[in-house]
Design brief:
Chain A: Pfam families: IF-2B. The complex is a heterodimer of chains A (519) and B (409). Chain A has 519 residues and is of the alpha/beta class. In chain A, 40% of the residues lie in helices and 8% in strands. Chain B has 409 residues and is α/β, with parallel strands linked by helices. In chain B, helix 3 runs antiparallel to helix 6, helix 4 runs antiparallel to helix 5 and helix 6 packs across helix 7. Chain B is globular, with a radius of gyration of 23 Å. The two termini of chain B are 37 Å apart. The chains are: A alpha/beta (519), B alpha/beta (409).
Amino acid sequence: MGDDELSTSLSEMSLTGSRSLGGIGDDRPGSALSSSPASPGFVGKGTLRPKHKQQQSGASPTRVRKSSSPKSGKGGGGKASGGVKEDRNRGRDVSSGTTTSRNTPGGSSRCESERTQGHISAGAKRQGPQSHRGARAESEDWGRHQAPSKMIHLFSHLPQYSKRSTQSKSDLHPAIETLGLLYADGSVRGSNARTAAMLLAFKEVVREYQLPPGEVLRLDLDKALKPHIQYLINCRPHSIAMGNAIKWLRGRIHSLDPEAGPAEAKESIVEAIDAYVEERITFAAKTLAEVTANKISDGDVVLVYGRSYSVELTLLRAKAQGKKFRVLVVDSRPLLEGRRLLASLSRANIPSTYLNLNAVSYVMRGVSKVLLGVAAMLSNGAVISRAGTAVVAMLARRFNIPAIFCCETYKFSDKVQLDSICWNEVGDPAELLRPAGGPGVTRQMEQAHSLQKDKPGIAASELTASLPQRLKLLNIRYDLTPMKYVSLVITEVGMIPPTSVPVLLRESSKDDVNVNFEF
Amino acid sequence: MPAHMPSVLFAYSYHSDALSYSLPCTIYFDTANAPVMEAALEPSIPPSNLPSHSSAPSSDDPLLSVFRSHLEKNVPVPIAGVQTLLHVMSSSRAVTIMGIQNDLKAATSELIEYERRISGGRASISFRACVELFFRYATRKNDDVPDFETLNKLFIARGHHFVANALKSRLGIAELGHSFVQDGMMILTHGRSEVVTGVLIRAAQSNKNFTVMVTEGRPEGSGFKAAERLTEAGIPVTVILDSAAAYFMERVDIVLLGAEGVVESGGIVNKIGTCQLAMVAKLYNKPLYVAAESYKFARLYPLTQADLEDNVDNDVEKPLFPPLLTGIEGGTATGKVEEGEGRHRQERGSSGNLLGKNTIFDSGPGVAAMTTKNPSCDYTPAQYISLLFTDLGILTPAAVSDELIKLYQ
């Protein structure tokens, strides 16, 4: 099963969260990518290529429907694509398929176009939206071309989710390309997994980087990394934690000893990346789980929301400590991440209950603790986390139940944000309409649904295309929980109140290299 | 010696300088023997003997003798503990830093265990916090120091510095805090705290006229002791029932409390009843100040009352309803007796003395089936606290965690 394979490939990268990356009880077609025999070499070169060749055979260059994954592509040969509907044409009539080469250099080699096409079919389901900042440098502001009628005004400043190709330039490292696809289709999800995978992919890039004659390594390496970073951002906007890691990496490269030889310098970067992943992510999550597990006592009813890696580790740890407690797993559409957590909890024999976010007010009075994951901890004490977290935390506050947030310190950010609007990520609007057995919103949608009943992923794109003009969809990924709803933040260095986030930032920045990069 | 034990034996020796009962004695043991040492400790002191540390030492344990000798000098219990550790440090024969640290760890756990017993079965948060802080502070590594001898001297010097600072802290707090007390104020306090008394006496010394209202502080009646101290200093004091706090709150200007421990959130752990007092104060928008030394800052983060360890005491021997207002020796209520107390006084006239039998619940068929709970302290969240007066300065509750992070990093 793809689950195990991916975890093998990720454990190679010493990412303990890998278990999470497959798809238990998950209908997301993205996990199909990992079930391909080609995937174990997660950071290896060109691992996706054989599969792409398969898909290409028999692909007719017609208008692309939602080709959501290589697997579904394989299933219906005609649906796998030779091209992709471009984002700016979404909602209008699309004449022909092959409009993908917009940023492909004209005379690309055969090998490269192979790869590109493969990527299209693999990544077409969820293609990279635009980064809200750095992407502008690449002069591809695709959000602008989004059909304006489908844009929510309040969120129009954010990079819109787009059907943009994740095709790459020729000089990208295969590890990065693979990772980009995994980001885009949701196979690698969650700040810890995404950051660790990104750093380990960068490690490969650094390892294979050759210093051109006459260049200075610490300048040229940074330059060489930029397109890679950009590509990943195109695949999916990076989280704040990833931004921190990128910032750190670039700072590390810039502070390289100019006297050191290239091999030596590269080796020191590689070692530093390993250390970062180990200390700031893997080990931090373990320590954090240990501390948090001590906060769980016998008889507790712990409510958790979605699936956070550190929360999952905590619950398993508490169970291993012999604590007797019950877990309420609260889940929400469209990702239904909680199902994976549920699977893992039941494997560990932890008594659990599964419910949806809309039932949470009913169960809250019986809860004794609320454990929540974090995507980023801001310096005003606010928490950015998966959408829905704020609702849970506020409700917990209303019932006087402590809301405990688990956050590794690398997710701490010196940003200040007051709402969920100025920074967020817009996900695929079609996810909201993906029918889970129910009827669609319009008659066309119902028709599309009945046509494609057995392929829910494909139906979704049809559904968005058939939406009435004035219907807009908003699928945001994060929300912001204000400080007053945060009872406690548990980090690997201990338990702190949310008011002390700036202190930890200040203390930890003393020994860090202070280089400020804009992304 | 088992194979897994360290090959170096650490030497403990306690040479007490001036005290007659400290026989020079040397115990050789390594850390693995610490449990043996603890098992050999004197039998536990019954809580009824409190305060037992002022009596003659009943044990030969040199460590505890030193501890008691410091307690006799009327220093706060945590500082006596730290002074004992300092003594361990200066008399340790260990020749490595690890050795010193192991000596200290063993002595620390012994002291905590002992303190738990003399304070009636519940380890005090401030004691643990203080010895931990001392350990951190004194034995922090310093790479510049070339050899062990110099480093050990540095450790001891730091230790003395710590003790000196800790002893000065109450004065510093009184100096900082007394300006919050103004002429004509009515100040409500709860339980007995030397720091609070210090602040109030300092304020009285600077010719401010104010009155103090003290809750009686059941079950041990600590409020009476505080009232006694304040009356001696010439401050007008009114003693009220614990349950009358809300009744009097509208007349109160500020609430001034001590703390047994200050936790990471900026909240405090203090004598039972503090939390409800703080809630009432918040509701009436009365500022609530906490006076506490910085050595009481503990790396704890209670979320609920249940997070406080061994707090709920089900001991039926301990009277839960002692008649307080007259029963306590020398503790006649001073100051004006208000109507509420007047009524009370008539009622409790029929009750016995403090430790005597409980006349209300002495008999009756339901008594056997009754359970009592008698927690000794509660947790007051930071949101109810306006400011903390500490020797580090006047802090907001949020700054406590900042200071703790600085202290522990």
